[in-house]
Design brief:
The protein has 13 helices and seven strands. By secondary structure, it is α/β, with parallel strands linked by helices. It has two domains: 206 residues, Rossmann fold (3-Layer(aba) Sandwich), CATH 3.40.50.300; 50 residues, no CATH class. About 2% of the residues have low confidence. The structure holds guanosine-5'-triphosphate (GTP) and magnesium ion (MG).
Length: 318
């Protein structure tokens, strides 16, 4: 099917077409940039929510309840579940599918699993681009579920407007360790599994830590939740909505958007430069060139310079 037709159907809400475009995005299809450039002006309407936290904290269960909440308001919800352990694209995470399964028959909900391929363990460019597509296709709320380990925990801030950090009882000591990275990017806290002992201790630790940075324009609310039965979800969602309003009305929000757009341009540039580099090097990499390298009659710097000059005439590597 022609990409134009596919896009038209996707914009009309056809889920299969949306899925196919996301596959194009994941496979870095050369046509995807033109497509994203076209839909970009239709974006900026969705609330983009990042839900992050350690493995098994209850992110998917919580996401399921958040979906339910927004569906009751008639909003369309898109979910991208990022699986850092999977280097493959489109890999379905069975557990997530099961936890959110009851929404799969609902045409107002789109759930997609994604690997983190090509981004050194962080969120891939494809995640951001899928958000752009879903936003253009009229999804009011886009949730990105990511495990808060490694690079994805800091990357989420480059994609999400609001970051919800899910913590659980029994990890009091870990909070001290997490402080530097992830605690700072959280806009809303969900202390989940509040039905388990130790919940007050985690909540107290988080509040204590937040007290140290109280003079920030947005003080992240701390909510106790039991994702399994929906306790605390209403309050959590209310805080998420408040944060959206805050971003629109505060210079902090504008600064965040500014940084994000600058980063986005940089990423697109890097992606193109990488593509050009790969293309030129593959064309240049003959047996002859490799022989020269192996026999040390040439060296990697000289070869790189030659390749680079094919892309940008006159450049020097050293
Ligand atoms: N007791 C209790 N268990 C919960 C709660 N929320 C989730 N769980 C359970 O915790 C387990 C993990 O839940 P998930 O929602 O899959 O957690 P996750 O953070 O998405 O896990 P990963 O995606 O694998 O990192 C499941 O067995 C849930 O049923 C809760 O509020 N209380
Ligand atoms: Mg999950």
């Amino acid at each position: 099917m022609a990409v134009d037709t596919l896009l038209e159907k996707a914009l009309g809400g056809d889920i299969r077409s949306i899925a196919r475009i996301i596959s194009l995005i994941e496979n870095d299809n050369p046509e995807k940039d033109a497509l994203l450039k076209r839909v970009y002006p239709m974006t900026g309407k969705a609330i983009v929510l990042g839900i992050t936290g350690s493995p098994g904290a209850g992110k998917s269960t919580l996401t399921d309840k958040v979906i339910e909440h927004f569906r009751r308001q008639g909003k369309k919800v898109g979910v991208i579940a990022v699986d850092p352990s999977s280097p493959f694209s489109g890999g379905a995470i069975l557990a997530d599918r099961i936890r959110m399964q009851r929404h799969t028959g609902d045409s107002g909900v789109y759930i997609r699993s994604m690997g983190t391929r090509g981004s050194l363990g962080g969120l891939s460019r494809g995640t951001r681009e899928s958000v752009i597509l879903l936003d253009a296709c009229g999804y009011d709320v886009i949730i990105i579920e990511t495990v808060g380990v490694g690079q994805s925990e800091v990357d989420i801030i480059k994609i999400a407007d609001t970051v919800c950090l899910v913590l659980v009882p029994g990890m009091g000591d870990d909070i001290q360790i997490m402080k530097a990275g992830i605690m700072e990017i959280a806009n809303v806290f969900a202390i989940n599994k509040a039905d388990k002992p130790g919940v007050d201790r985690v909540a107290a630790e988080v509040r204590l830590m937040l007290d140290l940075v109280k003079d920030r324009p947005w003080v992240p609310p701390v909510h106790l939740t039991v994702a399994e039965n929906g306790t605390g979800i209403e309050e959590l969602v209310a805080s998420i909505a408040s944060h959206s309003v805050f971003l629109k009305s505060n210079p902090d929000g504008v600064r965040r958007e500014w940084r994000r757009l600058a980063f986005e341009v940089e990423e697109i540039l890097l992606q193109h430069i990488t593509r050009m580099t790969e293309k030129s090097w593959n064309a240049y990499k003959t047996d002859e060139v490799m022989e020269l390298l192996l026999s040390r009659k040439s060296n990697p710097y000289a070869v790189a310079e030659d390749v680079l000059r094919k892309i940008i005439p006159g450049t020097r590597v050293v």
